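Follow-up to my earlier ticket, as requested here are the two runs.
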Amino acid sequence: MNSALAVEGKNVIMEDLRQSCLHTQLKEEGREYLWWDYVKHVHSQCFEYIGEMCSKEGHREIKRNMEKTKSCVDQSFWKEDYASSENTILKANDERWKEYGTLYWPSVVINSVTYRGDITAENILEVVCAALADKPRVCLNFYKEEHIVYEPPAITAGGASVELLVVVVILLVTVNVLLICAYRRCQ
């Protein structure tokens, strides 16, 4: 079977809808990590044909009943005729694409900022790490491998740096000494 002929647009859209519904359900349950297992299974096992049977296998792989996902997909259409009906999930995605400017490929949105162009995993990791106040080990290792100079922020005391605290103390002592000198001259 020629894999290019087996993958049809309708099947791709239906799988996108199943993935979106499954992601929403798993996120509500606090088990969002299972979505990645599902996607990994479907994309590795069903490369030549994307369809409902493959999705059922993916659901079985993560020990989920597909009926809830199927119901979500069915309810996302405004009419029973899927070919001519609007879809709430696709409409919401369209709005997000317009909002974040992700109509152009490849693109990714991180912290409400859209990045486009030649995006690599390293680019994404660098942006994510830059946004984190406390850098996890993976970020520090990445910086080291990429020869990116990273200096941890100065130790803070209640939101102010140690250097700022020292300057304020010296300034207060100086002002007090000047006030004492001025007081003695006035007497």
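Run two:
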Amino acid sequence: MLSLREYRLQELFDVFNINAKNSAIINDNRTKGRIYSRGSQTRVANLIAETESDASHETMIRQDFRKLAYYNSTLMTDNKGRAKFSFTLPDNCTTWRIMVVAVGENNLFGYGEESIVVKQPLTIRPVLPKFARYGDRFNAGFSITNGTEESLIVNTTSNILSDGALEIFQGESTQNLLKLRTGETKIKLFSFEAKSEGSVQLTFMGTAKTKDEKGRSVSDGISVPLTIRPIPPVEKLSCAGEMVDSVSYQINVPQDIRKDLGGVEIEVSNSILTTLKEPLDYLIEYPYGCLEQTLSRLKPLMHIRYLANNKPEIINVSSAALKDTIEKNLKKIVLLQHEDGGFKYWGSDDFSDKYLSIDVAYLYKLCKQYGYSFPVDTEKLTEYIISQMPIEFCYEENMKFKYSESSLFSLYGLSNLTKPDDCEIKHLLQIYNYKDSLCLLARLKLLALLNKTPHRKKALSELHEICNKIKVKENIVYFEESEMWDSIPFERAFYNSKNLAEAELIKLLLEMEPDNALIPKLVRYLISEMNQEGRWGNTYETSSILDAIAFYCKKYEADTSAYTLSLSANGKKLFQLSL
């Protein structure tokens, strides 16, 4: 790192990249010729590349087109501050930029820059695509420029070294005679067809009938590679669905497919978990740091490990590795418990977070269910959650529903630690009176709590009312939009998610009406809502949806019956497979 006045970063992109169209490579590179100073009136050199003066001299083929000609990080000077170095320029005929930074004693620094341009009388440039794909037909070739002060007649030759990967169309001659006026550029293109993938070497040469003043041939030649890439797979989904006993699907074959490539791929499974590889990898590999992210990771992983033990052929993850990950993160969460009983967002925080503390209570319930050790102080956690509830439920009439939502979330956290007592049930019934003012997610939480009390009928009636408002479209169902949760703080805005409400409804239906026909349709919709990266809006949303789908799998996929798959075309059975 240098502290230099008037020192500027080098614009390497402008220097090393040629301003060309995306569809072609045009290299203005020549190796023999004069070198001129640029940016200085003094000519730096007047060097002409020496070649044999023999008239039979063969054309030199240029193929070394490196961008960086020379670099030396430590070059020592003599006692006069001078240093000598030498190097061989690549075959590029272009503008070369020489940059020098000098460092001396007593904090003395210096910077120098010079440019040279390399030219030659006759120049050939490739006119090629950046790459081709198997099956492509395209025009490519070269351009040739006469840089002399007289007209030239040039014999050109084109050679292809490709082992059959690239072929020139029949009838086209690879040897041509071109007439070039002074300063004129002509382009010669050929029609090619890529026959197979691989690397191709194309060589273009040109020799003028006229000799220079020393009797040497005026010529140029270049050899450049061209990559023939395989055709990338293009997948089209023909049909998808699910079955209970049997089902038959019509496969619609696209009209624009290549008949010489590809095929049809059929995937069948007795578990919806096969479609969840991306979100599972996301939860395992995400660089978790804060408490919310750690909780979002652990909740579904506990379900997944349980399901992996029962369906190892479907979930291709190590149960032992999952257990190690879960236990390490549980120990990490234990260290985040504050002295007031709540849990901190970060270890460096000096205060607890109410909503994350409630999520920890749910995690504690899962740990008891799956047999994990989670030695948090539940008594202090219970006291903390109670302390976060409004002291009295007797605020002004138009403000009661906002405090109802805050209290409701606290009661949900307590339900994961202890059974609701009479006071809590009374509080729930008071909140129920304001159910129409609650957001959708809050109403579903309320019904989940009432379902555990003697007032289950109230919860069931309200559940049916919510289900009657759900949007039905073909084989999926979903909520059109979710109401905002006004009392949720800004940093918990991600709780206001329509997908979160749909995940909560799945869990509630599994608990209250496990055979409800809406359940698989809700699951199907949530899976269709995954983004291109294979996950949902954020870590919390991804975790909550996987949490609901895991409960669905435990209920609907307990039976792993065998099944038979067959494929027919034009009434003829191609194969049959029993699984």
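The only thing I checked on run two: Residues 15-56, 393-401 have pLDDT under 50 and may be disordered. Let me know what else you need.
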